[in-house]
Amino acid sequence: MTLSALIFDLDGLLADTERLHCQAYQMTFLEQGITLQELDYCEHWVRFGRGITDWVTLNNLAIDPDALRLRKSEHYCALLNSSLRPMDGALELLDAFHGQIRLALASSSYRDAINGVLAGLNITHFFDVVVSGLDVAAVKPAPDIFLKAAHDLGVRPEECIVLEDAEKGVLAAHSAGMRCIAVPNDYTRHHDFSRATRICSSLKEITAELLQSLEPLATPTNSRDHLSS
Fold first, then answer.
1. Which of 11, 16, 144, 165 is labelled catalytic?
2. S-S: 89 plus which of 22, 63, 84, 203, CB 3.0-4.6 Å?
3. Do 110 and 223 lie in a common domain?
């Protein structure tokens, strides 16, 4: 099976930012007199891929979700300036594959959050394509974001390997007909990774030999339709 592209998640995979997203939301809600527990953040945002509008609705809050997101973005950008760091092995992995294979970033986050991390870690130049949550109709666990990344790269989904840290991303990759390597972190170790092609404990385990050894999915999607749409 031809390997044409690697598609990376961002938060929790390349960048140690889930803790910063959580802190930013906690600071934002605290300003409204509301306490957000870390476990609730982990389940709602990280595991199931839901957003601030869903949280406001589920908790019957009389607060404008757009205003909350903008305030959260302010806190998040400040935290990026003071506390941003890459995940272990991330920079080395990107450097190793840059120029060897096409690389894409596919994150459900808003573009401002993505750009802040890319600039802060100085990794923008590694990626041929960057897809955000605002670029697709549905975010992970829907496959849209990975299918758009493949489309923009001009490759078929079955020629891609996705690197993910969370259950929702693994499900999205599988639905897109893509092989997926899961690299769990402290926030996601309890997730269901049964749909992952391989599970690694660290990005340092990912080598060219490992990628070439991954078998294709048994029932790949008809990617030709997605590339021509």
1. 11
2. 203
3. yes
Residue 135 is a catalytic residue = no
| Distance of alpha carbon 161 from alpha carbon 185, whole angstroms | 19
List the structure tokens of 40: 């609730």
Distance between CA atoms of residues 8 and 94, nearest Å: 10
Catalytic hit among 9, 16, 144, 165: 9
- Look up residue 154 and give its two tokens: 């001009």
Residue 27 exposed, middle or buried by CB count within 10 Å (0-12, 13-18, 19+): middle
Check if 16 is active-site. no
At 160, give phi and psi (nearest 5°): -110, 150
**pTM, rounded to two decimals:** 0.90
Per-residue pLDDT of 182-214, as tens digits, reads: 999 999 999 999 999 999 999 999 999 999 999
Domain span including residue 198: 5-15+88-228
